[in-house]
Structures are given as C-alpha cells and as structure tokens.
Amino acid sequence: MTEKVIMAGFGGQGVMSMGQLLTYAGMIENKQVSWLPSYGPEMRGGTANCAVIVSESPVGSPIITTDATSAIVMNLPSLVKFEENLKANGKLLINSSLIEQKTKREDVEAYYIPANEIANELGNNKVANMVMLGAFLELTKIVNVESVIEALKKVFGPAKEHLVPLNKQALERGAAAVK
Amino acid sequence: MAKVLMKGNEAIAAAAMKAGCKYFFGYPITPQNELPEFMSRELPKIGGVFVQAESEVAAINMIYGAAGTGARVMTSSSSPGMALKQEGISYCAGAELPCVIVNISRGGPGLGGIQPSQADYFMTTRGGGNGDYRHPVYAPATLQEAVDLTMEAFDVADYYRTPVIVMGDGMIGQMMEPVEFKETSNRELPAKDWATTGTEGKRQPNIINSLALDPAELEKHCHKLDARYKEIEEKEVRHEMYKMEGAEIVLVAYGTTSRIVKNAIDALQKEGIKAGLIRPITLWPFPEKAFDAIPETAKVILTVEMSTGQMIDDVKIANKGRLPIEFYGRTGGMIPTPEAIMEQVKEILGGVK
C-alpha cells in the first residue's frame, strides 16, 4: 500500500508541519517515507505545499505528479492548483471553512470539513491542520493516530507537551467529521 | 542508533559533524542554507568554529587555511557559489589539502534559478579550476546515502589528501527522509605529518603551497597526483545496477533523476517492457566498467539528466561505441516525470525494433 498525499494551504496554516507529522508517524511504524516541500521565493502568507509518501515498499521519486492518492487543501488557491493532481477515485479533503466552492472533479471522493470552525470550537484556530489530518487518517488508515501523537511529542519536545491533548482532540474531531 | 527524520541539508551537516568535522566556512545561497544554519547552531556547542565568510571565494580560502592544519573542514554552496570556489578547489588540489565541499546544485547558467538541476556535471567532474587535477564526486540519491557518503567523503579526502565533492540538488537538500548515523570508518588513515601544526622547534616547518616554478618539479608533482587519481579510479568507483537482467534498454541516471527513473522502470516492467538502470554513485571516477556488464539483451542506452546533456559524454566513453545512445533531459529547474521517461523509452524501443 502506498499513500501519496499533497498537503497545501497558505503559509501559517501548518501544512508543512502536518506533512512532517505524518511522515514521522510513518517512520515510527517502520514504513518507508518521504517529505518533499515546495520551496521558492515565497513571502509570508504565500502558498505552501508538501508531498508526503508513506509506503510499504521503498520510496522512489518523492515527487507527486498526477498520481496523488489524496490531497488536503486548506485554501481556495490550493484546491484550484492541486485537484488536478489526484488520481481517479483519490480522496480530496477540502477545508470548507475557507473554501466555499466545490471541486470540479467528479471522479474523486470529496470530503468537505469545516476545519477552522472545529478548531475554533476547541479554542485554538491553529489546530485546523490537525483536524484535517485526523480526517485524513480516518479515511486512509495509513498510520495509527497513536503514532501521530508519538510524533507530536517528539517534534514538540517536553516544553510543549501541554499542547498534545489539544492536538489529540483536534485529530479526533477531524476523524468524527468524516465518519 | 535509531532513525531520525531530517532535511537533506541538515542530515549532510550532521553527518559531517559525526565524521569529525569541526570547522565550517560558507556563504549563504539557496537551496542549501539549512546546512550552514545547522553548522552555525551546532558547531559552537562542540568547540568548533562556524564562520560566515564575506564571499564564497573567502570561504574556500578559509578551507585552504584550516585544512592546512590537518583539521576536518567543510564548506557548502550551490551552483553559482560553487563556480566562485573553483579557484580555491584547484589550489587545495595542488597543495594536497583534504576537504569536503558540498554542492546542492540549482539551475544555471549564471545566477540561474533555485530549483533542482544537474547542470554542474561538467564543472564538477572536469575540474572547474585550472590545472592537472581531479577530485572524487559523490552523488547521493537518498538522504541515507547522503549521510553515508558525506562521512565516507572525509575518509577519502584524508586518505588521498584531496578535496572531495558531495553533490546533490535542491530536492536532496530540501526533502526529509529517515536517516541513521552509522559508525562506518574502518579505513586506516595515514598520520597528517604534513600539517602546519607548529614545529615546537623540533622539526623543519611544513609548507602548504601550490606554487612550483620549476617545470621539472611541477611535472613530478603532477605525476604524483596522477598516480593517486589512478588509484582512486581503481578503488573508489561506485555504482548501482537496477533490474539489469534481460534489460532491452539501459537507462543511465544519477542522484534525484535516478529515483524518478526507477519509478519509470518499475512502471514499464508492469507493461512488459524490460528496462534497467546504471546509477553512478561516484561521478568521478565514472563507473566505466559497469558498462562492460550490460547484458546482451540490451539494444540501446538512454541517458536521463536534469541538464541538456553533460554526463552523456562519460556514457559515450564508457560505452566504447557498442550501443546507440539516446538522451532525455529537463533543465533550468524542471524535473522530468516518470511518465515522460516512459514515453521516451517506448518511442526509442519502437524505433529500434
């Protein structure tokens, strides 16, 4: 099984860290993983995206072209840019809090998740990315939620361990949104 | 030691420190900035030195000075910055100074762009600087390989008293993969009795120099270097063969491009087309002998590069005129897709049949 996921949004929405957490979690589960960021002359608030591959077999090219099995889009430009990269029957997770329109693709499974609203209900707008990641994990089961929590602890370090419960809640709410 | 998830640039820096590199001199340039950033943060913690020089030229000359004391030293840059370092690299080669230089290359010529490219093949393998010299060039395709080869590069540099280049591109530098830092070195390294460590009045001064005005002396020196290069060609060449058995077409690619080519080969296999890969791991010395092992089933060679065709010259030399050689490349920071490579293979095989 190979999951090739594109994560995209604007700078500050946490798409890079969402990708890193998934990659880290895959590594914890002894899967083959790669994380490839877009890089370029970007400004604050500009677009950000990364390509994550989690697989049972060695990762060849870390680039995802038109063979994405999933895409998580956090804002409208990301939807427009990356919906084309999905394979037929791929999963498209759309942050409906910021994206009003629907996907043009009729051959993909689209999920509309009000990630910012859910994050606000949890008291912190910044965990919208974790809501999306929670939904993604529920749909794909590519790694266990526990591995993501473990990854969180490693990435945050002891100083920010108090943020783990909030992130865990966000993951759970995201999962519940697509059940 | 357990695996850790790191960015390529950071992994190379960490590997250098693991190999005993304590001194780093560099000048910022995208897409390798995480490497000096890591060094600036970590080297002071172990009593090492990080210097952001005023230019790439200054940095490589600091390397010359520090390497002269026998310390393990590194600098890193990206294509236009590497071009500036060439004079210093030639001086290091002439003065037989071990050092490791990392090139996380980007599109050119000129200031070019910042996206991945392999257009520095000529500069890196043909000697961008003046004079009769060579230096080993490692081209990792994965971050684990980048770590292993960086550590190896320090040993090779010390053993042969030569600059060694580790060359990746923006993709290798920016991506994250799990890496493990293994204890590797089992090479017996000669004592650095040539280093300028202070005579304490007990011996004649050691002199680090690349000037030799007497042609007979300079020829002798060049022959000494050449003998060393021949030994490197014999002992240090590395490559990987992938799915070569029964291959109808042999692709040649290194670094980032080789990963994309492997995807294409796997997909072609599913369609019943047998394609294999020769992946040079050392660009110099180039794995010429690998081409002698191409199976008789092969009808054609396809070189794939992120350039308009540079390694293809070495492929032609290694092929010794045996098979037709085709080329496919993207350049300027564009990355070839597996689909496009598959298309090329099908077109070529259709034409050869």
Model description:
Chain B: This is 2-oxoglutarate ferredoxin oxidoreductase subunit alpha. Chain B: Keywords: Oxidoreductase. Chain B: Its EC number is 1.2.7.11, 1.2.7.3. The complex is a heterodimer of chains A (179) and B (353). Chain A is of the alpha/beta class and 179 residues long. Chain A has one domain: Pyruvate-ferredoxin oxidoreductase, PFOR, domain III (Pyruvate-ferredoxin Oxidoreductase, domain 3), CATH 3.40.920.10. In chain A, strands 2-3-1-4-5-6 form a six-stranded mixed β-sheet, sandwiched between helices. In chain A, α2 links the parallel β4 and β5. Chain A starts with a strand and ends with a helix. The mean pLDDT of chain A is 95. Chain B has 353 residues and is of the alpha/beta class. Chain B has two domains: 232 residues, Thiamin diphosphate (ThDP)-binding fold, Pyr/PP domains (Rossmann fold); 113 residues, Rossmann fold (3-Layer(aba) Sandwich). Helices cover 39% and strands 18% of the residues of chain B. In chain B, β10, α9 and β11 form a beta-alpha-beta unit. Chain B is globular, with a radius of gyration of 21 Å. The N and C termini of chain B lie far apart (51 Å). Classes of the chains: A alpha/beta (179), B alpha/beta (353). Chains A and B meet through α1 and β2 of A and α7, β8 and α9 of B.
Tell me the span between the first and last alpha carbons of chain B.
51 Å
Assign the structural class of chain A, choosing from mainly alpha, mainly beta, alpha/beta, alpha+beta, or little secondary structure: alpha/beta
Looking at the chains present, what oligomeric state does this protein adopt? heterodimer
Name of the CATH first level of chain A? Alpha Beta
